[in-house]
């Protein structure tokens, strides 16, 4: 009986195996729960930032530092500075790429997507409402819309001033900036900006190749180099293939995706520099009028979050909700692919003086491109009379010297534009 009883009992090895399996299941379940909690935390924090981060890319970086680094300590100070440096070097919306990068480091690819969604969605929804208001009430010629165009003049002028002091402060970089502005004004076609950036990068590499490399720390990135290479290959593949497909496939959705993808992929210097690229892509084709285009750009200054959500407004004006969805995904996709593809290699690349020199030249050229955009299309279409000049100067004073919040500047511009329409002839 004892023998028979022993047969029914599991052996010591069996009990240990079952215990090990159960423990592994518990660990896996715990990791899954922990992963979802981390993603939920990333979504909650990034959404909070998306609702409250006014003031443009530089201000966004300050908000990120306060929330992600100082309060939550998701990264150390030097790693955050290194991430910001990488995103300043890459084309695309710098502040959005920093947010995506923090999400990637915190929770992998899903973390990057979640951080982007939380930070971007609030301003997307606000600009969609503005687009439908503009269409539904036919207010494109209203005085306050004209005021928003003048707001855009003041804000871009402020961006040029700040970027010029930082990125074109010496003789060589100032020369690159002025040369880029001159070429952009005198030779206007779809390839101009790309060629300016390439040439400026080569000049910067030649001028600064002997410059001492800045001391760096190592970023820990939970993304394999295989995934990184795939992202970079997809980035380049879409950039090359989309314009080709557009020539053979007649589809409005494909053409729209191509225009916004190329704009997002070729913009150095952040949201303000996307203005001339998108304007050349959309206005001459008749997809949107220049008045509605500049009105939306002014409105984009009044909402929190990334300026690249201006694309959501444009897409909605062109083709409703589906257009907004295509435009939003297309303009942000290059930024996501680039930051995901470059982070695993950044530790090696940033130690090259040639790479740092190339980006010094590119950043100087960005200042010049933005300076050209200040004149055309902004100044030529928004400043039409002496009273417009006066309003632009007042808004610039409020923004640069009084340092008032952007929403006050936008409100003042809208009120000023309305008053201008009632002035006696």
From TrEMBL:
Q: Which UniProt keywords apply?
A: Cell membrane, Membrane, Transmembrane, Transmembrane helix
**Membrane topology qualifier:** Multi-pass membrane protein
Q: Which Pfam families match?
A: Chromate_transp
Annotated compartments: Cell membrane
Top-rank taxon, per record: Bacteria
Return the InterPro entries for the record.
Chr_Tranpt_l_chain, Chromate_transpt
Major localization class: membrane
The molecular function terms of the Gene Ontology recorded here are: chromate transmembrane transporter activity
Q: Has keyword Transport?
A: no
Q: Which residues cross the membrane?
A: 113-134, 146-165, 185-207, 227-248, 324-346, 358-375, 381-402
* Gene Ontology cellular component list: plasma membrane
Question: Record's PANTHER family?
Answer: CHROMATE ION TRANSPORTER (EUROFUNG)
* Annotated family: Belongs to the chromate ion transporter (CHR) (TC 2.A.51) family.
Protein name in UniProt = Chromate transporter
